[in-house]
Amino acid sequence: MVDVVTGRSTWRVVVDDRRYAVLDASAGPYTVSKTRLRHGQQTRGHEHDRDEVYYFIGGYGRMTVRDRTFEVSTDVVVYVGPNEYHRVENTSAIEGAPLWFVSFFVGAPGRPEVTSDD
């Protein structure tokens, strides 16, 4: 949520564990989700019934969408359609280096996943 008087966003911690830290903020019908994926870790592979756009802001990794896997790094933007399986992996060669990305979607904050391969 954005305070229209100050222009500041309120970020809510969704998860912070050995795998990743995720913070969400809302703006109108949109949610912005900021993720720090720890070195050598991957997100749960999942799908849901909404579009999602990923913007990678730092680090190196791989992303799988449907049956296609490709490299991701700073300034890569990826569209994920409704009901498309997707997963992100941190593959950095630098020990301890996180992979940072932001995702944007319409809907409430949190993890509205339909399936998971965790």
In total, the number of domains comes to 1
Q: Based on DSSP secondary structure assignment, what is the total number of beta strands?
A: 11
Beta-strand percentage range? over 45%
Which consecutive residue ranges, at least 5 long each, have pLDDT under 50? 1-6
The helix tally amounts to 0
Query: What is the CATH first-level class name?
Result: Mainly Beta
Could you report the average pLDDT, rounded to the nearest whole number? 88
* CA radius of gyration: 14 Å
Can you name the CATH architecture? Sandwich
Order of helices and strands: EEEEEEEEEEE
What can be said about the biggest beta sheet?
Answer: 6 strands, antiparallel
Helix content: under 10%
Secondary-structure-based class equals: mainly beta
CATH fold-level label? Jelly Rolls
Q: Note the gap between the termini.
A: 30 Å
Spatial arrangement of strands, main beta sheet: 1-2-3-10-5-8
CATH homology superfamily name: Jelly Rolls
Principal-axes shape call: globular
Keywords, separated by commas or semicolons:
about 120 residues; three-stranded antiparallel sheet; single chain; mainly beta
What features would you describe in this structure?
There is one protein chain. The termini are far apart. It is globular and about 40 Å long. Helices cover 0% and strands 52% of the residues. The chain is built from no helices and 11 strands. The chain has strands at 12-16, 20-27, 30-37, 46-47, 52-58, 60-65, 68-73, 77-80, 86-90, 99-106, 115-116. Mean pLDDT is 88; it is low at 1-6. The chain has a single domain (12-110), classed as Sandwich (Jelly Rolls), CATH 2.60.120. A hairpin with a 2-residue loop joins strand 6 (60-65) and strand 7 (68-73). The strands form 3 sheets. The protein has a 6-stranded antiparallel sheet, with no helix packed on it. The chain has a 3-stranded antiparallel sheet with strand order 7-6-9, with no helix packed on it. Strands 4-11 form a two-stranded antiparallel ribbon. The chain is an all-beta fold and 118 residues long.
